[in-house]
Amino acid sequence: MKVAIVGYPNVGKSSLVNRLTESREAVVHERPGVTRDRKELQTEWNGRSLTLIDTGGVDLDDRDALARKIQEQSRTALADADVAVLVVDARAGLRPGDQEIAELLRGPSVPVIVAANKVDVVGDLPLAAEFYSLGLGEPIAVSAAQGLGTGDLLDRIVELGPSQEDAEGAKAQAEDAIRLAVIGRPNVGKSSLVNRLLGADRVIVSDIAGTTRDAIDMPLSFESRELVLIDTAGLRRQAKVGESVEYYTSLRSRRAAERADVAFVVCDASDGLTSQDLRIAELAMRTGCATALVLNKWDVAESLDLDHERARAHQKLRLRPKVLTASAKTGRHIQRLLIEAVGLGERSRRRIPTPQLNRFLSEVVTARQPPAGTSRGPRGHRLKLLFMTQTAERPPRFSIQVNSRARVTRDYAYYIENRLRERFGLEGIPLIIDFVERSERRSAGARGAAA
Known about the structure:
Blueprint: E1 2-7, H1 13-21, E2 39-45, E3 48-54, H2 65-80, E4 83-89, H3 96-105, E5 112-117, E6 140-141, H4 150-160, H5 164-176, E7 178-184, H6 190-198, E8 216-222, E9 225-231, H7 244-258, E10 262-268, H8 275-286, E11 290-296, H9 306-316, E12 323-325, H10 334-349, H11 354-367, E13 385-392, E14 397-402, H12 410-424, E15 432-437, E16 449-450
Parallel strand pairs: 1-3, 1-4, 4-5, 5-6, 7-9, 7-10, 10-11, 11-12, 14-15
Antiparallel strand pairs: 2-3, 8-9, 13-14, 15-16
C-alpha cells in the first residue's frame, strides 16, 4: 500500500516518516525545503506492508522554478498513492497554505487523513480540533518527536487502504525486483539519466549541484522484468563534505548502494574517468553491488578515447566493471543500459551448474599449470585443483577443493578469478572463491580468497 505524505514546508513530514518507519532515512533539518524529490520508504503495521512517500513542502504561492517542480512531484505522488496524509503544524495553527493544499487533495480519488503534528504533550491535544475546518474529516493528533498518536494514524491508514490480498501480491513482486542504484559525483547527470530510463520527469533536475538530497526509489518495468531505480545525491570526497545536510545526504547515498543489487556509477564523459569516479565504483563493489561505469553526456564527448578509459578502469578496479556510454539528453544507448542492468542483476543471482564449473576448472589448469609449492609448502609438490562447485548467490560464492591450501598463491587465485569472470560474464560482480583442502570440512565460514 502506498501512502503519500504531503503538507506545507517545515511541518515535520520527514520527521513523521522517520518515526513511522522507525528509521532515519528521510533527511531532517530545521531549514525548510530540504526534501525536494519524493522518497519511498518501507514499513509494516499489524502485518501490513506500507510504502510511505515523503514529499517536499508544497507552497502553492511560491513561483520559483524549483518550488514548482517540488509541487509537480507532490502531485505525482498523490496520483500514485492509495492513501494521502496531510501533515499540518498544530502549534502554528491553521494557515492559508494548509487550506490551499486541502483544496488540492479534494481532487484525487484517494482517502485523505489530516495528521496534526507537533502535539508533543497530552495537554496540547485540543490544538488538533482547529483543523476540522479543512473539511477532510477528523484530524489525528500526532507527535513525530515523541511518537504520540502514531499508532492511531497507522491504524487509520490500514483501515482506508486496499485489501491484504492485493497488498501481498504487490509485496512479492517488489521482493523479486532488481534494485538499481544510480550513484556518482554531483552534477554528472544522475537525475537526468534516471528520468530518461523511466521515460518521465520523475525526479527534479537542475543545474544547481546538490539538488537531489535523498535516495529516491522508483519502480520500473522493462521487458517483463521489474526493477527499482534508486536516484541518489552526489558523492563528494570526504574532505569536501561540509554542511550537515550534505553529510547526511552523502551517508544515504552510501546506504543506497548497500541495499542495491546493481549500481551504475555515472561519470561526466567530458571529464573522462576521474579518481573520484573510481573511488565510488570501489565503494559500490565493496558493498556487494554488481557495478558498471556509465560515461554520461557522450553526445558532447565523442572524441574521448573509450578504449583508454576501459583499460584504465580494468587496471585500477580488480572487479573489472564494464565502461558504458550514454546520453541522458538525447536518449542514446538508454535501452542498452537497461539491458545491462537486468543482465548484471540476473548474473549475480545465477547458479552455475557444477559440471560447467568443473569443465572450466579443467581448462584453466590446462592453460596454466598450478604452482609447484611455496615457502609454506613442500617444494616440487604441485597444487592440484580437484573439484569446483557454487555454494551461494548474491554475491556468487564458489568452493574449489584442493590438495593443499598452503600451495595456493595469490597470483594463481587472481588468475582463476579473472578467467571465471570472462567465462561466465561476471565482470563488475563481486564474487568469493574458497579454496578448501580435501580433508577440511566445508562450512559457511570457510576461509578463502574473496573478491
